[in-house]
Design brief:
With 205 residues, the chain is an alpha+beta fold. The protein has 10 helices and 4 strands. The strands form 2 sheets. The protein has a two-stranded antiparallel ribbon with strand order 1-2. A two-stranded parallel ribbon has the order 3-4. Helix 3 (60-73) crosses helix 4 (87-97).
C-alpha cells in the first residue's frame, strides 16, 4: 500500500485541519534500486547516474498504489494538494486526485523536492511538465525560472554560489535554450561533485 500519513494542523484550538502526507508511488528508479540491492553493496551508487531515471514514470505497481490511495481518500474533504516538481510525485498526485469529489487545486512547490545527488532527484523540465500537467498550478515555482524555463534545473539549485557558477558555465556554452543539453550538463556536474551531489543534506532540509 502507498503510505498515507495523517496529522492535525492546529490553526487555533477551535479550528483544526487534517494534513495528509503521501509518499510518491513506486517509480522505475525504485524498481531498479531494489534490483541493484541484489548485486551491489553500493546499490545507490550503481543507479545514481542512470539517465533513464530523469523524469521517470511510476511503475505498474505504482499505478496500483495510487488507485488504492485514491479509494482511501475519496471521502476526505481535500481542498489543496502540494507536490514537488519531480515527475513521479506529480504523476502520483494526478492519479490520486484526478476524479476526487472535492476537486482539490494541485500546486507545484520547489521546496518539497528531495536532495539532488542523483539523476532521479533532478527537477523535471519546466515546460514539459506544464504541458503534461495542464491542470496543475505552477505559480509557486514560476518565479524561479523567470529568465528561462529551459534552465529550471539550474535555477532550482539551493546553493547560491554553485547555482551562479553553473549558470555562468551554461551561458558561456550558449546552451541555455536547449533543455536536453542543459540536462546532460547537469548530469555531468552531478558526477563531478560525487558523492555530495548538487546539494548537501543541510541545504535541502
Amino acid at each position: 500500500l502507498l503510505q498515507v500519513n495523517k496529522f492535525t494542523l492546529s490553526q487555533t484550538m477551535e479550528n483544526k485541519k487534517p494534513v495528509f502526507l503521501i509518499r510518491h508511488a513506486q517509480s522505475q528508479h525504485n524498481v531498479d534500486m531494489e534490483k541493484a540491492k541484489e548485486k551491489h553493496k553500493d546499490f545507490f551508487g550503481a543507479v545514481q547516474y542512470e539517465v533513464s531515471h530523469y523524469n521517470c514514470d511510476i511503475s505498474e505497481l505504482g499505478y496500483q498504489q495510487t488507485a488504492e490511495a485514491r479509494e482511501k481518500l475519496k471521502d476526505k474533504n481535500i481542498k489543496i494538494v502540494l507536490t514537488s516538481p519531480i515527475r513521479r510525485a506529480m504523476i502520483t498526485a494526478r492519479e490520486i486526485f484526478k476524479d476526487h469529489p472535492s476537486k482539490p487545486k494541485i500546486y507545484v512547490v520547489a521546496s518539497l523536492r528531495e536532495k539532488c545527488n542523483a539523476v532521479s532527484g533532478m527537477a523535471g523540465h519546466f515546460a514539459s511538465l506544464e504541458k503534461e500537467f495542464p491542470d496543475f498550478d505552477f505559480s509557486p515555482i514560476a518565479n524561479i525560472c523567470k529568465e528561462s524555463k529551459e534552465i529550471f534545473l539550474v535555477e532550482s539549485v539551493v546553493n547560491d554560489d554553485l547555482r551562479a557558477a553553473i549558470k555562468k558555465e551554461i551561458l558561456e556554452l550558449k546552451i541555455e535554450n536547449d533543455a536536453e543539453r542543459v540536462k546532460d550538463f547537469m548530469i555531468k556536474k552531478l558526477k563531478e561533485l560525487h558523492p555530495e551531489g548538487l546539494e548537501s543534506q543541510l541545504e535541502i532540509y
